[in-house]
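Reading group handout, session on sequence-to-structure problems. Before we discuss, look at one worked example. The prompt was deliberately terse, the way you'd type it at a terminal:

> structure Glycosyltransferase 2-like domain-containing protein

The input record follows.
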Amino acid sequence: MDTINVIVTALGWLAAGFWLWFGLRTARFLRGAVLTRRVSASPTPAAWPKVSVIVPARNEAAAIGPCLQSLLALDYPALEVVAVNDRSNDGTGEQMDRLAARDPRLRCIHVQDLPAGWLGKTHAMHQGASQASGEYLVFTDGDVLFAPQTLRIALRHTLGRELDHLCLLPKALPGGYWENALTYFMGMLFILSVRPWAMASNARSAYAGVGAFNLVRTGAYRAVGGYEALRTEIIDDMRLGRAVKAAGGRSELLMGDDLLQVRWQVGVAGLINGVEKNSFAAMEFSWPYLLGFSALYLGLLAAPYVAVVQSQGATGWLAALAALNVLYAYWNQRAGTGAHAVFALPAAIVLCLWALWRSAVLITWRGGIRWRDTFYPLSFFKPERR
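And the output record:
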């Protein structure tokens, strides 16, 4: 066996070891991370703290009504809902006002103008948090649906664990076969990137945030500067989680099965367009970062297929391919879309990398990001991230 074959074989076994470790770690996490199963370990509080749910929305007339209705149906006894209409022109604000007229727990804020130096969403979040009166804040999106028991279960767990921050992954509402395949592949990559099992440690690199459900103690939120300190952050949910963790806060990421649901985007094209603003921002708008990530991505996800087809170091790479496919099948089976989604894995790998590079090329070519009818030049963002 020549030197190249030895190296290829060794790399195959390294990839196999990685996917075996990650698969076992993920399966263990998922078994113990469903909030509805874990909450029984926490006592019921004698008094429930007031919680303010902050819902920003811009031109979401089709979704905001069901979202707010699900929030107002929560069985939590000390609830305030703050809905922020961010410069909508499609009837979103009118729907908020109609619901607020029927339920005093809902307050509406109507943003007419975007101040300089702010992203629209972070400004809306800031406005909502500034007028909220709860001891805990929940930041969510205008298309998320809540089960009635969501807040009661989340607060019971948060208080019992003495957490400063809790984020929940919602159940993704199913779409078509290819949409589901790409959605759950992206979800698997998210778990890989944030390592939720390490969040209980003091490691500052282990943090997370979820736009659908980011619960934070108000004191911890203010201590890190709130959204005023995140005014130019595209992936604001993650940056809020990072700020709380960096300040020494206790944080957890759990699965919101049976509590939250959302359809992230409609169709494969919708998914690719939906990650356009986030993907390159997650790379700090850095081409070297993107190139390094792409090399690692191809080595772990594409190389097993190529090596097996070409019979290069086939045993190790076959083991890597098997471990990867079993993990992806398990992930989809758990989500209810079926293990047969594994046949779409090669396409999902290609499409996800394409979406990342598309984001980088478009943002670089345009010189900035277009988000909800507003253009933000790269010079708008923090200098250290350009």
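Points for discussion. First: The radius of gyration is 22 Å. Second: Residues 95 and 192 are 39 Å apart (CA to CA).
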